[in-house]
Amino acid sequence: MKVVVLGGAGMMGRVVARILVEKLDSDVVVADYDLDAAKAVVEWIGSPGATAQRVDVTDEGSLVDAIKGAGTVANAVTYYHNLRVMEACLKARVPYADLGGFFHGTRKQLELNDRFAEAGVTAVLCIGSAPGITNVQAALGAEGLTTVESVRIYDGSVPIEAEGVAWGYSLTTVIDEIVEQPFVYLDGEWVGQEPLGGLEQYAFRDPIGSQPVHLSLHSEVATIPVTFAARGIREVFFKINYFGLSPAIIERLKLLADLGLASMEPMEVGGVTVKPRDVTMAALSQLPAPPINVADTREEIVTEVRGSDGEGPVTLTVRTLSSPNVGWGLDAGAVATASPIAIVCAWMASGELKAPGAHAPEAVVPARPLFKALREVSGLETSVATERPL
C-alpha cells in the first residue's frame, strides 16, 4: 500500500518519504503544493517507489482525491492545516498521522476521536520526536506503575554556536514557540507560564552535555495528563534547549516578537495590507545558514516518569539518542523527527497498527516495538534507568 506524504517536499516531509521507501519498503507519493520541489525530492530518493504529485491541502476536493485509496497519510505540512487534513482523511477513509498540533491544535484534533472511531479510521497524532518519541517514552516508563505522579520531558541537542540561523524544523513553529505562552500541567490543572521561562540546567549525555533548558508550548502537556489521569498524574512539562539555536539568536527573535513583528494581525503599510509575521518570515528565510557539519549533530530526548509500583516510589528515566544520517546529509534532529511517523505510517498501511479513533501516541503506539524499529531503521539508541530511594 502507498503512503501519501503531504508536504513531501518540505524539510521533514522529504525525510519521511525517503525513510518509507528506502528503509520500510513502502511506495510513497511525494505530495506538495510545489510540484517542481516534489519532483526534486523524488530524484533525491532515487527509487521507482516514489512519485511526485501537486496537492493543495486547502482545496478539500482535490486533497480527498489525492489521498483516496492510500494506505495512510503522513501529514508533514504546517500544523495550521492539521484539522483540514484530518477531515479529508475522514471523507476518504484513510488512516492519518502527523508531527504535532502545538498543544491547542492537538486538543482540537482529539475532539475528532468519536468521528474517527465511528468511521473505523485510525489517526495517530503528534508522532515525531518531540512530540512523539517523548510520549511513547512516557508510556514505556509508566509500564507496571500503579500511580504516575509526574512526567518531565527534556529535549537537548548540540547547540549551534556559529553566526547565522539553521532552522531545524518549520520556521513558523519556531516563532510560535518563542511568542506563545507555554502551559504546564500542575496539581490537576493546565497553567500558563512565561515564554522561555522555567530555565534550568539539565545533564544530557555526551556529546551534548549540560545545557540550559526552558519551557515551550508543546502537545505532550496536552495529552499525557489525559492519558494517565486514572493513575493520579499531577505534573507534566516540556523543556528544550533553545530549539537547537544559540541563545543569542533566540534573543534577537524575541526582540522581533516584542516589537510586534511576529503578529498575525493585518496592518496597512503604504497602501498595502500585510501581516508583520509574513514579512518577518520572508526576511528570516533569506538569512544565510551557518556552516554546520551534520556529522557533529546529536539530539537526546529524555522523559522522566515518577510514580510508584508494588515496591514503592520509583523514577524511570527513558532516553533516546539520535545521530545524523551523513550519507543523506541529514542532521540528528531530522532523523529523530521523521523516523517515528514513517514507522507508524508503515504499520498503519500494512494493518499492523489499527486503533479506530484519534489518539495521542502514548495511548496506542506499542512502545517496545517502536524503539526496536527506531534502532533498526535509523540507529536511534534508547535506554531506561530505574531509580529507587533506599
Total of domains: 2
Instruction: Give the CA-based shape.
Output: globular
Task: Report the strand count.
Answer: 18
Name the CATH homologous superfamily of the largest domain: Dihydrodipicolinate Reductase, domain 2
Average of per-residue pLDDT values:
92
Count of helix runs: 14
Classification by helices and strands: alpha/beta
How is the biggest beta sheet arranged? 9 strands, mixed
Q: Calculate the terminal CA-CA distance, rounded to whole Å.
A: 53 Å
Portion of residues within helices: 25-40%
Specify the CATH class of the largest domain.
Answer: Alpha Beta
CATH architecture title of the largest domain? 2-Layer Sandwich
Low-confidence stretches: none
Radius of gyration: 20 Å
Query: How much of the sequence is in beta strands?
Result: 25-35%
CATH fold-level assignment of the largest domain: Dihydrodipicolinate Reductase, domain 2
Keywords:
390 residues, alpha/beta, Rossmann fold, Dihydrodipicolinate Reductase, domain 2, 2 domains, nine-stranded mixed beta sheet, seven-stranded parallel beta sheet, 14 helices, globular
Can you walk me through this structure?
This protein has 390 residues and is α/β, with parallel strands linked by helices. It folds into 2 domains: 2-128 and 334-378, NAD(P)-binding Rossmann-like Domain (Rossmann fold), CATH 3.40.50.720; 133-331 and 380-387, Dihydrodipicolinate Reductase, domain 2 (2-Layer Sandwich), CATH 3.30.360.10. Helices cover 35% and strands 25% of the residues. It contains 14 helices and 18 strands. It has helices spanning 13-22, 35-45, 60-67, 82-92, 104-110, 113-119, 133-141, 171-179, 220-227, 247-258, 276-284, 332-350, 361-364, 367-378, and strands at 2-6, 27-32, 50-54, 72-75, 96-98, 122-124, 147-157, 183-186, 189-192, 200-203, 210-215, 235-240, 267-269, 272-274, 299-309, 312-322, 357-359, 381-387. Strands 7, 8, 9, 10, 11, 12, 15, 16 and 18 form a 9-stranded mixed sheet that branches. A 7-stranded parallel sheet has the order 3-2-1-4-5-6-17, sandwiched between helices. A two-stranded antiparallel sheet has the order 13-14. Helix 2 (35-45) links the parallel strand 2 (27-32) and strand 3. Helix 1 packs parallel to helix 2, helix 1 (13-22) packs across helix 12 and helix 12 (332-350) crosses helix 14. It is globular. The chain starts with a strand and ends with a strand. The relative contact order is 0.17.
